[in-house]
Amino acid sequence: MPHSLVVAKLMPQPSAYWTSYYGREKVISLATRPFLALRISQTDVGLHDNSQEGDFLFAISPQKPSGVNKGCYFALGSSLDAGRKMLHVEPPLHPEGGTLYVHTFPRLLEYVESARSRARTVPRLPHQLEKSSYLTFCHSVLHDYDRKIHER
Whole-model pTM? Predict the structure, then answer.
């Protein structure tokens, strides 16, 4: 059940393999910024795909998801409150300006090359979800995934 909070960055080039030559050329010019994410093993979530290597990454942001992903989140905090969708983090996070939210949908797939590398260059942070929070999150990811599939 290993998981970690990491600083990640979207890499548009690997995900543009399906587009045209001009699309692949354009994607080279796209600039992305690092973001905070929760890295979780595919098997812990129950959505393992043998054809895709790498862990899942779930975005963490100061905003709750909106639109079609409304409600697919948990607040990250240092205490459990039965009235809120909150996960317990140790050591506690102290973000400037308020609460952070970990999104349960969509999930991102970590780039395969970094998954194969033993010397990961992605900075890991010392924060982890408390065990029951981690299990709650994994269950919710599977639930939200199933719900989104049935909404199609």
Answer: 0.78
